[in-house]
Automatic annotation (TrEMBL):
The lineage of its organism: Eukaryota, Viridiplantae, Streptophyta, Embryophyta, Tracheophyta. It comes from Malus domestica (Apple). Gene3D superfamilies: CDGSH iron-sulfur domain, mitoNEET-type. This is Iron-binding zinc finger CDGSH type domain-containing protein. The keyword Endoplasmic reticulum does not apply. PANTHER family: CDGSH IRON-SULFUR DOMAIN-CONTAINING PROTEIN 1.
Amino acid sequence: MASIVSTAGFISCGGLNRSSGRSSTTFGTQLAYPLSSSFGGGCSRRLKPAVVVVRAEAQHINPEIRKGEEKVVDTVLVPELSKPLTVYCRCWRSGTFPLCDGSHVKHNKATGDNVGPLLVKKQ
């Protein structure tokens, strides 16, 4: 399990961005409401820096379908296609989504999963 620790920084209260009419933080993030304890446009206190911890765990995309197979690949035959073969992603990790770029191979090695693409062939 990987963890990412990030410091959000001090939030500047009462600093209105005149072009948008929104409050802004010291990192330039635009918020739709003023960050103040009083709604008079200014802050009576500064907020402390915040630390955000995000944990990411690799999980199986395919928890129970055909687990006896090394890689689950299905083929659908469609007579109305213009191309002879189109390969669609089912792992949700493809850089060319919805088309498959082979990213499932890396995912399967990292998680022990067996997800594979959907092949749509012209009949």
